[in-house]
Design goal:
It contains 10 helices and 11 strands. It is an alpha+beta fold. Helix 2 packs antiparallel against helix 4 and helix 6 packs antiparallel against helix 7. It is elongated and about 70 Å long. About 35% of the residues are buried.
């Protein structure tokens, strides 16, 4: 069983992507402006387990189980998610069956996935009103961890100070908010979901592009916004910046590289050499990057 799952996702990126997508779906930032787990209603948090189950099945194309959620390698498997590590609720019908136990935490930027058989001796004696029970210490000890405390893609809004967040959301319109987002997240990955949360518009990704978007609006300030395009990835690598992955953007303020800068990382943009600007430097107009 574990070998089948690891064969389907040897590095864990598919699990990580699914957990990130699930959290973003629950927050629904494009329509609500929410970006913190604690902003969810109790009913939404309760629904998280069902959404994890559904999204994992979609990602891995698990077949429906005979009695449990999935059938993996011919075995019935129940999917359990908990917002708190170790607090998986095992229903009576899952006793004796194999469970895929999952956990993720947006604040800690971590997730875990393991396999455990919900044997009677692995469960606490006491139960809740629905007869569901937690794993006992010995049950938790025998979990076969496929991934433990693996990294979850950062929700950059959770890492910003209250003052920075307030400044980003202060403008009434989406475009100025997105401009401010990239001013205040220099050198950090910004996901599509974060842009949607800040912009709160149907065409939020258009607000990054040239021709009136953040790329052209921030160029006079010396800021470029790198995306997932090959030329952008190459520039990010040469400047020593985080590499933008699918749907991500990284902004950086640049200054023209001069021979006196020596071995400072630099890249060619628009026929000139550029480096990451120092915090005390004056902004200079930078060329617009090709978007393809």
């Amino acid at each position: 069983m574990s070998s089948a799952l690891l064969s389907a996702d040897p590095t864990g990126w598919r699990f990580a992507r699914t957990f990130r997508r699930t959290i973003d779906m629950l927050l629904d930032g494009q329509r609500t402006g929410r970006f913190r787990w604690r902003q969810l209603h109790k009913t939404e948090k309760t629904h998280a387990g069902s959404l994890v189950e559904i999204n994992l099945q979609r990602e891995f194309q698990f077949a429906d189980g005979q009695k449990m959620d999935y059938e993996i390698s011919g075995v019935d498997v129940d999917c359990k998610f908990s917002q708190e590590m170790g607090k998986w609720m095992i229903p009576p019908e899952a006793v004796g069956h194999l469970c895929l136990v999952t956990w993720c935490n947006d604040y800690a930027e971590k997730w875990s996935v393991g396999l455990v058989r919900a044997a009677e001796q692995s469960l606490l004696e006491r139960s809740n009103r629905d007869k569901k029970r937690y794993l006992n210490p010995s049950g938790r000890a025998v979990i076969r961890w496929l991934f433990r405390d693996a990294p979850l893609a950062e929700n950059v809004l959770l890492k910003l100070s209250a003052n920075n967040v307030a400044a980003i959301f202060a403008p009434a319109r989406g475009q100025p908010r997105i401009d401010e987002l990239f001013r205040r997240t220099l050198g950090r990955r910004v996901t599509r979901a974060v842009v949607a949360t800040v912009g709160q518009q149907d065409d939020y990704m258009k607000r990054i592009r040239c021709n009136g978007g953040a790329r052209s609006r921030l160029a006079p300030e010396g800021i470029v916004i790198l995306g997932q395009y090959g030329s952008h990835v190459d520039i990010a690598a040469k400047l020593g910046l985080p590499i933008p992955r699918g749907g991500e953007s990284v902004s950086v303020r640049l200054a023209e590289w001069m021979p006196v800068d020596g071995e400072v990382p630099h890249a060619v943009i628009g026929g000139k050499m550029w480096r990451v600007a120092r915090t005390d430097g004056l902004p200079c107009f930078v060329p617009l990057l090709p978007e393809r």
